[in-house]
Request: fold
Amino acid sequence: MKKVVLLVVVCNVLASVPVFADEEEAETSGSAYYYVNAPIQKVYPYRQGYVVTYRKGAIGSATTYLPIEWLEEKTGEVPKLDVILLGTGTQWPYLAVYYKDGEFSHVRLYVRKERSHETWGHVPSGVDINDKFENVETIKLEF
Reply:
């Protein structure tokens, strides 16, 4: 009986060693990137980019503007905007804003593929919001 208990203890100790090693490695090699997700209420495609209304807190909402130029890949740089189409299912569309060393890096817009989804909207043809997309360099989400 003592040998069985000793064997179980030794196995548990040996099994936990890699877990502790991974945690230490993750702490010492910490990434400079972090991200913040926000559930989307509405996405409005516009000729200058995307207007995104997202949830902030339990009952509030805020709007951000994502210029179409951010989709373009510049030499040696990653595009500032990725639009990822979600298939059918239960995953709700969201906005993921990435920061590197505390500064805005890029954003990923996860939207439903089907334009009939309730999160897709449209900007009426007579509305001019071009000024909202001028000189946009960063996103600062409100909470």
Observations:
- Strands lie at 33-46, 49-56, 60-67, 81-86, 94-100, 103-112.
- The mean pLDDT is 82.
- The two ends are 58 Å apart (CA to CA).
